[in-house]
Design a protein that fits this description.
By secondary structure, this protein is α+β, with helices and mostly antiparallel strands. It has a single domain, classed as Aminopeptidase. Helix content is about 45%, strand content about 30%. The protein contains five helices and six strands; from the N terminus they run H-H-E-E-E-H-E-H-E-E-H. Strands 1-2-3-4-6-5 form a six-stranded mixed beta sheet, with helices on both faces. Strand 1 and strand 2 form a beta hairpin. The longest helix is centred in the first third of the chain and has 17 residues. Pfam families: Acetyltransf_1.
Length: about 160
C-alpha cells in the first residue's frame, strides 16, 4: 500500500495542501485497504513499477464513487490510460453501474479539465471543490472509449 501512498504524495500533496486538506496518511491507507478488499482497486504496472491506479466505492443502486484516480506524471500516456480505463470500464459494466461520481478540488485544474473531457458534469459545488457526475450507459461507454484514444499529453 505504501507505493500507492507514495504516488498520491507525488501527485496530490501540493494540490491537497493548497485546498486546505493535506493528505492524511492513515486515512488514505485505510481507504486503499478497503478498496482492495472490495476488489475495487485497479492499477497499471510496467516492469513491476506502479504507473497509475484508481479505486472505486459502491454507493448502492448503481452509483459508484471514484475514490482515487492517480497517474504518475511521467507515465501519463495512452498505454497507461488505456489499461486503467479498460479495467474500470470492465468492472463498471460487470456490476451494472449507472452513475459515476467524483470529487475534485478547485485547485486541481488538470483534473477538472480531464473530467469535463470525459463527459462528467458538475452536479454540486462547494468552497473547496466540485462534485462531478457521469451517467454510465451503453451510449456513454463507447464515446468514453473514443475520448480515451484521443487524450493528448497536455490534458491528462
Amino acid at each position: 500500500m505504501e507505493e500507492y501512498l507514495n504516488l498520491d504524495m507525488l501527485t496530490l500533496s501540493d494540490i491537497s495542501i493548497k485546498a486546505g486538506k493535506p493528505i492524511d496518511r492513515d486515512v488514505y491507507l485505510d481507504s486503499l485497504r478497503q478498496a482492495k478488499s472490495a476488489n475495487c482497486l485497479f492499477d497499471v504496472r510496467k516492469d513491476g513499477e506502479l504507473h497509475a491506479y484508481a479505486s472505486l466505492k459502491d454507493l448502492g443502486q448503481g452509483k459508484w464513487f471514484v475514490l482515487m484516480f492517480v497517474t504518475h506524471p511521467d507515465k501519463r500516456n495512452r498505454y497507461t490510460f488505456g489499461v486503467l480505463f479498460g479495467q474500470l470500464i470492465e468492472h463498471l459494466e460487470k456490476v451494472g453501474a449507472t452513475t459515476l461520481i467524483s470529487n475534485v478540488f478547485k485547485s486541481n485544474e488538470l483534473s477538472i479539465r480531464f473530467h469535463r473531457k470525459l463527459g462528467f458534469e458538475v452536479t454540486r459545488e462547494a468552497p473547496q471543490g466540485y462534485e462531478f457526475t457521469l451517467t454510465v450507459d451503453s451510449s456513454k461507454v463507447r464515446p468514453l472509449s473514443r475520448v480515451l484514444r484521443s487524450i493528448r499529453p497536455d490534458c491528462r
